Amino acid sequence: MTLLAGVLLHISVSAYLIDAIIGFSVVYKALDNMGAFQRWFGFQPNTKAATFIFGLFHGLGLATKILDYQVSSDGLLINLISFNVGVEIGQILALVVILIGINYWRKSVGFMQHAYSANAVMMMLGFLLMGYQVTGYIVS
Amino acid sequence: MYNTNIPIDRELPSGKKLLKSTILAAATAAVLLVTVVMPAEYGIDPTGIGKIIGLTSMGKIKMELAEESARQKPATEVLEQAAPSSAAVQQRSDEMKVTLAPGQSTEIKVSLQKGEKVNYKWFSSGGKVQFDNHGDSAQANVNHHGYGKGTKANDEGVIEAAFNGQHGWYWKNRGSESLTITLQTTGPYTEIKHLK
User: Fold this and answer.
1) Which of these, A132, B65, B109, B113, could form a disulfide with B168 (CB 3.0-4.6 Å)?
2) How far is CA A126 from CA A24, A55, A62, B140, B196, in A?
3) Is B80 a residue whose pLDDT tops 60?
């Protein structure tokens, strides 16, 4: 949605800022998985709403990248829709494999501890991505 | 994990544990950012660790390449404007070859009056070399006026003199083998010099 709108309306936000927000979404999701919002604030934010809102930023990020390529306006809409569908198919294919793996993991002994550690590592990577992009924004 | 089904309170990790994990994650990220990511991506090395593990030079090359590609667009515009106006003046053409050992650098310069243009084309026999196109002039009191630099195996374009003086090309062989650079120039210059 934001991908289509972003490219068609030529909305180009700094790729660094968008990527920093994407890094933040990784941190958010890790904390969400770890139950931090329930523990700290006593409630569970709607995971679907959060996915949707962060998804809009991801779309805008892709739009910015596509604009950087200076794509031809000839058949742009069809190309963009095809691109979107392709991205979705790719995501579904990847998720199928990941979900199977995670289900085996979920059944293993000590899953909760492993998952907690894995989310802490993911949060670290999210922070790292934020730092990387914010530095890039300052430098450029 | 904890957000899929509504968990009973005691199943949740303690607030203290969560805070500890968050701080640990942020601190690890900060350390990696300063010691690895900043040197490798931007050539910024506040701790000096990037230099020791060799990532700083990688970041510097990335930044040089980014600058180079950012400069590509204005450079082609100059090239298009240059062709028609320089035809009337008396032109000469030269070809020069210079051999550079590893680590060696050299310069070739032509003398141009302000506004005159020299068309050039060069290539290296041994891959990429670092280059810096620039001019200087004792008369105009200019030490170094940059026309663009980067790392390439060949290049062509136009240098338009910004003042009366010497304008030309600097190359440095950053590789481990000797290489030869061949430079072809056409323009209204009176003199072409190979400076060591």
Assistant:
1) B109
2) 6, 16, 18, 53, 51
3) no
